[in-house]
Amino acid sequence: MQQKFVVLDVETTGNSPKKGDKIIQVAVVVIQDGQVAERFTSFVNPRKTIPPFIEQFTGISNEHVQSAPDFSEIANDLVDLFHNAYFVAHNVHFDLSFIQEELTNNGFSPFAGGIIDTVELARMVFPTVSSYKLSEICQELGIVHLNPHRADSDAEVTAQLFIHILSKLKELPVITLQSLQKIARSFISDMDEIFDHFIHHQLLQVDQKHYNEDVKLIGTLAVKKEVSVPNRDFYNDKSDLPEFNQYIKEVFEKNGFLSENIQNYRYRKEQALMAETIYDSFNAHEHTLLEAETGTGKTVGYLIPSIYYSLRNQKKIMVSTHTTTLQHQIMDNEIKTLKESLPFDFHAAVLKGHSHYINLKKFEKVLVEEDDNYDSLLTKAQILIWLTETESGDRDELNLPSGGRRLWERICGNGLTNNNNLQNVDYYHRARKKAECANLVITNHTFLLLSCLNGKEENIDYDELIIDEAHHLERIASTTFGEKLDYLDVHFMLSRFGNVNTGLLREIYKWSKKRKLIDHLLIVELNNLVTELNEEFDLFFSSLHTYVKVQVKDHHGNRLSYQYDCFSAPTKAWSGLMELARRIQFFIRAIQKLLVKIEGVCLLNGESALNSRERNSIGEFTGYKGYFSEIYDKLDHLFLSPVKGNVTWLEIEAKGAKNAVTAYAQPIMVSEQLADQLFASKHSAVLISSSLTVENSFSFMIKQLGLEDFYPKTVKLPSPYELKEQVKLVIPTDIPIVNEVPFTDYISSVSTYISELSRILSGKTLILFTSYQMLKATYQALKKDRTLEEFVILAQGISGGSQSKLTKNFNMFDKALLLGTSSFWEGIDLKSEEIKSVMIMRLPFASPDDPYVKARCDNLKNSGADPFFDYSVPEAVLRFKQGFGRLIRSHNEKGILFVFDRRIKTASYGKHFISSIPKVDIIEGTIEQIKNTIFSFKENI
């Protein structure tokens, strides 16, 4: 390749050259013939003071640039480098905007050549990396980045990244390159000539009989060949296993199998006891609840006996955890370690629902559609490359752009056509095949529960079950066994179905009219019905939106919830809404009849009369019958024929679109369903979590999960940590009681406390909230506090990004505050050897306005129970235990748990919280007394 690439990076005084921000360092790496040919770097005098945060971020001080040249003095050198070159940068518009501004200001013509954005290309070429930030993608690719946020180092690693990108593109199959070239013409990066070169190179390789043996052609797609799954029973691999007691000793003891493969391995008797308990439960065919406190090593603790039992008894073990992310963590971490550690072979497989796996037939179809949406095009490009690498076809491997979700919904395996992929390449079937011959199947709670509903068709045959993170099971069951109807989902699907001017219906109309295979008048009739259906849906959802705003008069946030009861006497307004729902059902039935008629005409004319693209279109088209049936049934379950025992509610955004409404129906109690559909059919189910007891009793959880009639075994394993020495629980006495003062006064008080304590702790602090309103108000107060300028302050829903992204940013800084709600109460590790602290703003009672919580409490009250002490307090205690568990993650850590809600000591129910966590020293006092405690605790580390 003869092209010249100038890879450039600048450091600046700010983000906007138009507002006077200036370059303070520029670096260039020139690439020719795939090699670094030249380098240039210089500090630049901006003729203005460098802001302190820029100095801290880049390490470039005013002293560095004081005697540096002005940009005008290096401009000629840069212009010479730019001659006949592509301009390459990581986030190219940022660097280019500064260069163009300086060139123009100094009398030079702006750069007019091709531009290439390595962020964009990296997203396309490396679709599975977790982050496209320069330092993070370099780390994943093994590129050494010695000095991040300095232009010389950034330009050097950007050049290496670009060489990686070109090298990978060069090796792609020609059919993939040809598809990418068509898509990339809409990208920021000017890649057309580069693709031409690579396509020519690959065609030459084909002519010379050099093929990529790892991929095969499926239609117009190049996909990775499947590594064959042995067609044998993994259970029979080992008949010479030692006795279980000997096995446990060989695995866990000092100098055992685990110690040889796990760095800093520490024997924990609680972990060995867990393994013995689980094995005994399997052998006795009994259900067990097992609470394992922080540090027990529960994942390895349940995998060790499960693997042994499977091999010994030729039985499959199903392991279910909370999320798909945790499924992969288990496979990538613990399963990998055990495969390296244990002296015998075993097989584990991940299994998820259809929607996680790509359908090649659907993807091939969307690939040729006209598309001007950037995220959609980028997603298509990512998937084209990913298909040459993936064996699983699992969407969770991909790091898709935010707008890629909608495209995935059209190409995943649970769509509107059958799941038979091109030439029988069905990734979901492939995953099931692996699961069927595995010792362990790692799934998630949602898939586990859906399998109960769908019966044998979805089931993998197993009798023993491990339920990890079992404290989530009841709430996920309620969601899974319920219904949800969302306007945006309906709008997206109907938009895809389209009309005679857009979407799928337009395609059918055009070729049916041309080929006369279908009476195009049928399509016109269908178009009229769909148009009316769209209008009825818009009217229905906008009317629901208005109805909720009228009903919920006093509200403080944007998100409004309104619980409705279909069994109470309807008002005139509600009756009108129900009439709209019936009219929608009428149009759905009429549309379904027409779809059946059109499908019949196609069958009568014979599929041979259709080309492959037309067959795909008609398959997706008539497949909408299932989608319309689903909507029809949801209207029944949510509004017209609701199920007794369900709670139903509507959610809207008060300031959002007038028809953006979501309707929910969920069973108030799922205990009977779990008992009948899950636990009754299993020999053994072992439910594991760090939060299953309230005041050392399992009775609350046993009742919630429907296990009362099974008389389950219960085991509570303490933490192996010396928590009394490692943790202090601090309760301030000079903070007002949360519900006894105005909201603004409470925020002012806790913000002052957070500020003072954070400066003393001088490290990382996780601050947990139960409401977003309080989080936002506290964040705003802390950001205004000038004494916290040394701290990075991050907040869920404000700072941007997912939980993992916020956590990663949090762990990058020595001094940081992270404010979180909901998911941050569990699953986050604070990476620091310094003192850590967790601050809990309020005891984590669920909002009484939450429709599900309100329905649960009303149900208990009607049955004569006390909803507060029988439900609200136990639920809050379990949540509180999760927050406590965020603090200590190893034997050598120390930390302080601050509880700013004085009700933990003043209210009668406060003792339930304290008695449910491990025994630790409790310190109460004013801010001055607490400061002394912190200083003393720090000195003893």
Question: Would you kindly provide a brief summary of this structure?
Answer:
This protein is 48% helix and 15% strand. With 941 residues, the chain is an alpha/beta fold.
Descriptive keywords:
alpha/beta, seven-stranded parallel sheet, globular, RNaseH_sf, 941 residues, Nucleotidyltransferase, domain 5, Rossmann fold, 25 strands, single chain
Description of the molecule:
This is 3'-5' exonuclease DinG. It catalyses: ATP + H2O = ADP + phosphate + H(+). Keywords: ATP-binding, Exonuclease, Helicase, Hydrolase, Nuclease, Nucleotide-binding. Pfam families: DEAD, Helicase_C_2, RNase_T. Its cofactor is [4Fe-4S] cluster. The protein is α/β, with parallel strands linked by helices. Among the domains are: about 5-170, Ribonuclease H-like superfamily/Ribonuclease H (Nucleotidyltransferase, domain 5); about 485-665; about 725-940, Rossmann fold (3-Layer(aba) Sandwich), CATH 3.40.50.300. The protein has 36 helices and 25 strands. It has a 7-stranded parallel β-sheet with strand order 10-11-9-12-17-8-18, with helices on both faces. A 7-stranded parallel β-sheet has the order 21-22-20-23-24-19-25, with helices on both faces. Helix 4 links the parallel strand 4 (about 85-90) and strand 5. Helix 8 (about 175-185) packs antiparallel against helix 16 (about 375-385), helix 24 packs antiparallel against helix 25 (about 610-640) and helix 29 (about 745-760) crosses helix 30 (about 770-785). It is globular and about 80 Å long. Residues about 415-425 have low confidence and may be disordered.
